[in-house]
């Protein structure tokens, strides 16, 4: 297994290099520049041209790319044109907020999805199964941003139960910071979990239905194993295999940051930072974020294989 992990990591190196070139070129191909409209409106065209010149925007693309890579290997992601601070510090601050929201959403998603899928599969064709399937179909049909907007309007503005912007209240201190952070991520995390349960519930239900009609379950029943133990030790564990295969993608996908969630809730995470960097043509932030998202997705593929091998010892990567 370790040999395969090492081989996969080595294969990722040329993929990351190709990804970095594409990301850099696409960012440079965007119309506009980071200076026009973002500095003093009284600045002359000559001053703007001077800023472009000293920042190397007129250098050949390969020279700009090489300079960017050299700085990247020294841990320097560049300076944000819009925020006037180091990109690494900017992403680091936003990554903490995204990590909190992602972890909370992930825990809620699996806490809701696994019992619902198991319960629906156990009561196949009955009323509980029908209700759960209707819930998944309705949730699947409604666009995610619609769920977020409706949830924000009802629970944030109509009932005023949750804050509608930010990640921590500016007046929070000490232990109040943790309480305020949880209060800010509760609504977007819950809405994201309700939307994220759809695929997991459907996969879990299908696997439970297949497993309960399998030969090893019939054998266990013939030996007098209680139904509760059959579902707990046989059906549930084997039904986790396809879900575990997508576990790495789910984790890294959430860490990438939900653009819809963070934008609608004005939550200062990496997703909202990405949208802002595009609007202001902040090339250094765009390239750093897209490259990081791409690397996380590559790691997600590897992580899914590792999780699958841990869940089922029979599936080992030779």
Automatic annotation (TrEMBL):
Gene3D superfamilies: MetI-like. It is found in: Cell membrane. It holds the Pfam family BPD_transp_1. PROSITE patterns: ABC_TM1 (PS50928). Residues 95-304 form the ABC transmembrane type-1 domain. It is a multi-pass membrane protein. The chain crosses the membrane at residues 99-120, 132-159, 185-204, 240-265, 285-311. This is Peptide ABC transporter permease.
